[in-house]
Design goal:
Elements: E1 2-7, H1 13-21, E2 26-32, H2 36-45, E3 50-52, H3 56-59, E4 66-69, H4 76-85, E5 89-93, H5 100-113, E6 117-120, H6 127-137, E7 144-152, H7 163-179, E8 185-191, E9 201-208, E10 212-219, E11 226-233, E12 237-241, E13 246-250, E14 253-255, E15 262-264, E16 269-270, H8 278-292, H9 300-320
Parallel strand pairs: 1-2, 1-4, 2-3, 4-5, 5-6, 7-10
Antiparallel strand pairs: 7-11, 8-9, 9-10, 11-12, 12-13, 13-16, 14-15
Length: 321
């Protein structure tokens, strides 16, 4: 039985807590959150659970195997650092840290102390995304040529981080996993409308080796929710719409002998995928990593690669403001 504690139960924390409480492989010993409102909410949902207002005692607790960190992004690095130095395995929400220097330090600490370091890039555990990876890995799509990802909404607007750091880690993690590498070249722009100095919309073009190009568009200043991933290969194309929950495969062909090339369209095929909750899969992956001592899919190394791309995009949009 893996004994864990969770730090942070505000916006996303209750979802993590629900999954860990429902997993028979672990025991949630307690949660910690400085917000009285968050503590009251968790007490109402889980009245028998121990709730602290300060996490400091958790780091030195000999009865804890692992810590789950769901605090605001600016606290990820100091909390994960304290946990790793105390010899605890760590699952920390995305992003790993707010700069690559801190992110690299966390990787080094995990290695020095022999600890598991995992980051909550939840969409890498989404069954539709795993199915797309399968289509890529089996050659069903052919050679990858273009990836487009949009994550748009008029939803929660943050003031402690811009839309790049709030939305784009998901898309960058997926794109880089499909590409099998980090981008060789990045071009990015941003727009700021709602809060001075905090971009609401970001466009980024990512060029990968082998003539693979990707475009991501993230915004919390849109009239309707759109979360869509398009992957185009030399043999076929696919789209996943997270609003309609549909994964479609298009076996279009293009007659290159024609001048100009002539497309021959085919009817889309719906691709089924397992109806599992991505967060439940993520939580189980962390517990399995703690048990087996094998690195999970979204380990610190892959999270640092995402952080490098985030930092590069941030550098470009900062220079434009």
């Amino acid at each position: 039985m893996i004994r864990i504690a969770q730090i942070g139960c505000g916006y996303w924390g209750p979802n993590l807590l629900r999954n860990f409480l429902g997993n028979p492989a672990c025991e949630v010993v307690c949660v910690a959150d400085p917000s009285p409102e968050s503590r009251e909410k968790i007490h109402a949902l889980h009245p028998g659970l121990s709730i602290l207002d300060n996490p400091d005692t958790l780091f030195s607790s000999p009865g804890l195997d692992a810590l789950v960190i769901a605090a605001p992004a600016r606290f990820h690095y100091p909390l994960a650092k304290a946990a790793l130095e105390a010899g605890k395995d760590v699952l920390v929400e995305k992003p790993l840290a707010l700069n690559t220097t801190d992110g690299q330090e966390l990787l080094d600490l995990a290695s020095q102390h022999g600890r598991i370091l995992m980051v909550g890039h939840i969409l890498e555990y989404h069954p539709a995304i795993l199915k797309i990876r399968e289509l890529v890995d089996t050659g069903e799509l052919g050679t990858l040529q273009h990836i487009r990802s949009t994550r748009l909404n008029l939803g929660k607007i943050r003031h402690e981080e811009n839309v790049l750091w709030s939305f784009a880690p998901h898309d960058i993690a997926i794109i880089q996993r499909l590409a099998g590498s980090t981008p060789a070249n990045i071009q990015a722009t941003s727009q700021t409308y709602l809060q001075k100095g905090i971009p609401d919309t970001v466009h980024a073009d990512l060029q990968f080796p082998g003539n693979l190009h990707a475009h991501l568009h993230v915004s919390w200043h849109e009239p309707a929710k759109e979360q869509k991933l398009t992957v185009i290969g030399s043999k076929a194309m696919c789209t996943y719409d997270d609003v309609s929950k549909q994964l479609l495969l298009y076996r279009h062909s293009i007659d290159l002998s024609s001048i100009p090339p002539a497309p021959e369209k085919a009817q889309p095929e719906e691709v089924p995928f397992e109806p599992v909750e991505p967060l439940a899969e993520e939580c189980q992956a962390f517990l399995s990593a703690v048990q087996t001592r094998k690195a999970p899919l979204t380990d610190g190394t892959s999270a640092l690669e995402v952080l490098h791309t985030l930092e590069a995009i941030q550098t470009q949009i900062s220079q434009q403001s």
